[in-house]
Amino acid sequence: MRGMVFLPEDQEQGGYAFSPAEILFEGEKIDKIRRLPDEELNKKERETFILPGLVDIHLHGCMGVDFCDSVEEKGDGVLPAMCEYEAHAGVTSTCLTTMTYDEDRLIKIMQKARDFSEGDHPLKNCMMGVHLEGPFISREKCGAQNPKYIHSPDPAMLQRLQEASGGLIRLVAIAPEKEGALSCIKQGDGFRFSIAHTTADYETALSAIRAGANHVTHMYNAMPQLLNRAPGVIGAAFDEKDTFVELIGDGIHVHPAIIRATFSMFGSERIVLISDSMEATGMPDGKYALGGQDVYKQGNLATLSDATIAGSVTDLFSCLKSVIAMGIPKEDAIRCATINPARSVGIDGLVGSLEEGKRADLLITDRSLNLQSVIASGRPL
User: Fold this and answer.
1) What pLDDT sits at residue 12?
2) Beta-carbon count within 10 A of 76 CB
């Protein structure tokens, strides 16, 4: 396959760029990438752009189903439906994301994820892990999470959930101001923690990051804002340069001016674009559910009955194009939807970029990034 391929630039330059190249693969992995002189590509190949499959580490549902529905009567069809929708939308790797529930239900959800990952569904590779968003969050900033099930940070509970999942939990949301949070982060060997749904001030957030948290969940949402004398979580994340920050790129959760300012502030190497999509994604307007609460979809907006924004109804590929339309260079935006999220949860050795030995997840688009076809684990969809 030949075209303009999204590849790492020289080590001295850093970053990624589209370069003329040929990709060879047989089976699930990329065998060879050969860079080409520009004149070797014909006109059609120069108009063919080849990207890595997108990596969405924060999504709850789509097509009328939610990850947490996998334990209900319609459960057997939930994970296949989600992976099929996401893969056909260009998202070939996901960390499916829970809501705040009691431990018994979370254990069952983890077991369903494990069963799917060990099964034989042709798109099971689309689920690369689980993102536990709750229950270790702040009641004051719970947002669309159900406060009924909020739980104190508990390392033993985390280990039980991880055992049930077969090691699939890759990211754990936590409010660092909660009693026991910092010790949970320090004891959480093998877990990656993300500051989330929190009232933490700058000093508390900084302590959490230095204890081992290296991620911020949907920045600007469900947390104190950046103020001149109270920089909060955002200021702490900026100061600690190894911290990844999530941005929802749907144009609803974060204003375009703030998207542009965040790229200037954090740089394209630290931002992780996410969808935070819920079950109404890909569905008509109407009434849906998230975490046991009613959600109302109207156009690109999903809210609870009190007008609280409840996740997004936009897939990650649409978020990527939305961010580009806001003025972010396409190379930066693509990086933030591919290799950055993969690095943030430790799966960049397998996915997130087009490199020899990595999984053959490729998106074929035109020059305007209109998606034309998807190859997942070497298989055209």
Assistant:
1) 53
2) 13
Q: What is the mean pLDDT of the chain?
A: 95
Q: Are the CB atoms for 90 and 317 separated by under 8 Å?
A: yes
C-alpha 236: how far from chain center: 21
- Distance in angstroms (rounded) separating the CA atoms of residues 300 and 285: 9
Mean pLDDT of 29-52: 96
Q: Is the pLDDT of residue 13 over 70?
A: no
Residues 167 and 150: their CA atoms lie apart, in Å, by 23
Tens digit of pLDDT for each residue in 91-143?
A: 999 999 999 999 999 999 999 999 999 999 999 999 999 999 999 999 999 98
């200037």: which residue's tokens? Answer: 264
Helix axes 103-117, 75-88, angle to 10 degrees: 60
Give the CA angle between residues 367, 370, 371 to the nearest 5°. 120
Query: For residues 109 and 98, what is the distance between their CA atoms, to the nearest angstrom?
Result: 8
Residue 362 pLDDT grade (very low, low, confident, very high; cuts 50, 70, 90) = very high
Please spell the DSSP secondary structure of 176-244, one letter per residue: TTSTTHHHHHHH-TT--EEE-S----HHHHHHHHHHT--EESSTTSSS----SS--HHHHHHHHSTT-E
Asked if 276 is an active-site residue, the reply is yes
C-alpha triplet 60, 341, 301: angle, nearest 5°? 40
- In degrees, rounded to 5, the angle at the alpha carbon of residue 290 between the alpha carbons of residues 129 and 303 is 125
pTM over 0.85: yes
Q: Choose the catalytic residue: 276, 315, 332, 348.
A: 276
Chain segment 56-102, per-residue pLDDT in tens: 999 999 999 999 988 887 678 999 999 999 999 999 999 999 999 99
Axis-axis angle for helices 316-325, 330-337 (nearest 10): 150
Give dist(CA 275, CA 337) in Å, integer: 10
Phi/psi at 205 (5° precision): -65, -40
The sheet that has 244-248: what strands, in order across it? 54-59, 91-97, 127-132, 169-174, 193-195, 215-216, 244-248, 271-274
- Yes or no: say if 366 and 348 are a contact pair by the CB < 8 Å rule: no
| Residue at 11: amino acid letter | Q
